[in-house]
Amino acid sequence: MGRAPCCDRTGLKKGPWTQEEDEKLVAYIKKHGQGNWRTLPKNADLERCGKSCRLRWTNYLRPDIKRGRFSFEEEETIIQLHSILGNKWSAIAARLPGRTDNEIKNYWNTHIRKRLLRMGIDPVTHAPRLDLLDLSSLLKPAAYYPTQADLDTLRALEPLANYPDLLRLASTLLAAPTTTSSQPTTEQQMLLPWLIQAQMAQQVSQAPPQHATAADMFLQPSSACQMPGLVHANPAQQLHQDHMVPSDYGQLPGYDNQLELDYVPALMQMASDTSNLQWSSPVTSSNNNNNCNVGSGVSTPSSSPAGRVNSASPTTFCANASNIDAFSADAAGLFDMHLSDLLDVSDYM
DNA sequence: AACGGAACCAACCGCTGTTCA
DNA sequence: GTGAACAGCGGTTGGTTCCGT
Fold first, then answer.
1. Residue A345 C-beta-side C-alpha neighbours within 13 Å
2. How many Å apart are A198 CA and B6 C1'?
3. Are A164 and A285 spatial neighbours (Cβ–Cβ below 8 Å)?
């Protein structure tokens, strides 16, 4: 192996193709077909290497290439296929007639990838990412000084870590762009304090000292300082200060000292009312494939080159678009998938 | 109008897998 | 069995265009 690049020979032209070169290449292939790319340049009187000719033909000159912007359906298909196949651009292109792998790859990197990131979705795993949501920047806290009420809240919310779906959804909804302005939607206003508290509870739950409760951890100043993503424990107040919440908004859920975990189904109901979300049970959320998950939902492919099967914990919520805005339509396109019905990808599994 | 940064995309690079002498 | 030739793939580059200041 380790063969020298075919364009290293002197005298071969590189860079953009001229119209004359294109015409020569097209005329030759029309007459002789796609044959030996190595001998083609010489036979077609082109000062190019065969590899360059092949790329030019397959990516640009081929008559069946569809040019122009990607349609919404094409974009959705790319996202769905990428969630299963990963960066297998040629495999994705094979299922999008008229589109080349290079074109899809470019479109992914310049459009889709950025949009997913903006939505708080990891473009590699297709899973919403809490760590991409910079809550501290939203709230601009000066420091975190937990009050006794905060600690009580944390104690009550610690079991929320058992609701990863809830956390992901809240994160996604909060990361969503609002339709007309930078002002958060009412749903976002309600979700934000919930997510903050749940996120804190999850962090505590994921890496607690052996015998420390969540609240105990926050009693340690050094621990509090080291917790990533910690924000002021009263986001409602902070939101109010930042003019993100109307002054008459009232008491936000989660800041009642008598907070109970039955807020969780209430939040699920709220989210469901907002976007027809369907929840998997918290008990089975990380493994359950029965709901809208592997085979019929978003998968989380490995970024490794081989075997893009669902190895990581999959995203386990999905949505049906109905009375939702542009973001929600996008999200629904991402999450409401029935790939097994549409595509035969078994050869890549 | 001029400039600079961002966005876009065609083309290149380097690697892997396959074929064949 | 070996290695060169080749096709194909994914990642990256760099030139061009767009857009805001």
1. 28
2. 37
3. yes
CB of A49 lies under 7 Å from some atom of strand C = no
Q: Domain containing A76: what range?
A: 72-118
pLDDT at A203 over 50: no
pLDDT value for A10: 54
Q: Rounded CA gap, A236 and A49, in Å?
A: 64
Query: At residue A251, does pLDDT exceed 50?
Result: no
Residue A186 has pLDDT above 60, yes or no: no
Q: Provide residues 51-70 of A with CB closer than 7 Å to any strand B atom.
A: 51-52, 55-56, 59-60
What pLDDT, on the 0 to 100 scale, is given for residue A33?
A: 81
Both A78 and A169 in one domain: the answer is no
Q: Which of residues 61-100 of A touch strand C (CB under 7 A)?
A: 87-91
Task: Please tell me the total number of residues recorded for chain A in this structure.
Answer: 349
Domain CATH code at residue A98: 1.10.10.60
Are A91 and A154 found together in one domain? Answer: no
What amino acid is encoded at A56 in this protein? R
Give yes or no for CB of A43 within 7 Å of strand C.
no
What's the total number of domains in chain A? 3
Q: Write out which nucleotides of chain C lie closer than 7 A to a protein Cβ.
A: 4-12, 15
